[in-house]
Amino acid sequence: MVRAIAQTKGKRASHKSASMRPDITEHRIRQVSAWIVLCLLLLAEFGLAWDRRWHDMVGRDQFWIPPHIMMYTGIAGAGLIALCVVLVDTLRYYQKKAGVDDSSTVNILWFFHAPLGFILLGIGMLIDAIAAPLDNYWHVLYGVDVTFWAPFHLMGHLGAVIGVLGIIYAFASEAAYERQVEHPSPRLLGLNGPEWGIVVLLAGFQEVVLPALTAFIPVMLGPVQLITYPLILVLAASLFPISLYLCIRKPGITLLMILILWPLSLATETFTPLALRFMVARLGLTYRLGREPVFDVTIA
After folding, report:
1. Which of 29, 51, 191, 220 is the most exposed place for a label (fewest CB within 10 A)?
2. How far is CA 174 from CA 32, 142, 184, 250, in A?
């Protein structure tokens, strides 16, 4: 009984000490912002999966189709969060707030000061935003091409990679901070909050490449068919788990990512045909080849 009371008091003292850290406000801003961005990127991922199926089965008659709205809402939202963090941290830097100094921020354009991860995130989302109208113009000129190698698809993918690297860096820096402080935040299954963010983020990013199993055509080099997407799958299947382990260095962490990846893929492949059927019926559209969308067991 006495031991239980002592443990309870110790936990209360730990949480109180954690809340009294002078830089706690800054790290709460960064961690909450990172989690909001993660949710927005997952929204964009669902929109991307829906968009691929929409182009394949319905076509592309205009830019403002429902999947685009969903996808670019996530992208624009993530970009706005990155911009807000840059502006808020710049203000806090010049106010000399705790946790915002030259060691925890980088200077950009000789005036702004912000965490490197959110700067990369903002750059990536800006590239995606610029790629969107250019890709639309490309489709107007040359029609629909649901391929990875279309010029402005590549530009969009580049922006996505930069943005994801940025938010991973933001989570990783906060995870390192939580490991070093004397009174860290509560943990779940031995992982702190930012570490969970890294796991979910990498699982979501890996889910994006899974449709390469079925959704894309080979690249033709004269009479030779170059099937490139298995290479991307192999790269993702090896790079993501290795990166995750190097970042967190805990046994079973890659298995945890796979356990999160499976329900995420299941949710995506459940959502996509349902959303496609609903919006096609609501907008009075027809399917290009007369076939309705079905649940994709291969990807799920």
Report:
1. 220
2. 11, 45, 11, 17
Instruction: Give the number of C-alpha atoms closer than 13 A to the C-alpha of residue 291, restricted to the C-beta side.
Output: 7
This prediction's pTM? 0.82
Q: Tell me, yes or no, whether 18 lies in a domain.
A: no
DSSP H stretches of helix in the chain: 2-19, 24-57, 66-94, 116-142, 151-180, 193-209, 229-248, 253-283
**Any domain includes 17:** no
Q: Which of 69, 71, 221, 61 is nearest to 143 (CA)?
A: 61
Number of domains in the chain: 1
Tens-digit pLDDT profile for residues 66-91: 898 999 999 999 999 999 999 999 99
CA 275, chain centre distance (Å): 21
Is position 8 within any domain?
Answer: no
HEC assignment per residue over 46-105? HHHHHHHHHHHHCCCCCCCCHHHHHHHHHHHHHHHHHHHHHHHHHHHHHCCCCCCCCCCC
Examine residue 40 and state whether it is found in any structural domain, yes or no. yes
Side-chain-side CA neighbours of 211 within 13 Å: the count stands at 24
CA-atom Rg of the chain in angstroms: 22
- Could you give the CA distance from residue 81 to residue 234 in angstroms, rounded to a whole number? 32
Burial of 152 (0-12, 13-18, 19+ CB in 10 A): middle
Task: Give residue-wise pLDDT tens across range 104-121.
Answer: 889 988 899 999 999 999
**CA distance to 47, 52, 109, 134, per residue, from 141 (Å):** 24, 19, 36, 11
Spell out the residues 6+ positions from residue 87 whose beta carbon is closer than 8 angstroms to its own.
112
- What is the per-residue pLDDT across 122-173, written as a single tens digit (0 to 9) for each? 999 999 999 888 877 777 776 665 555 677 778 888 888 899 899 999 999 9
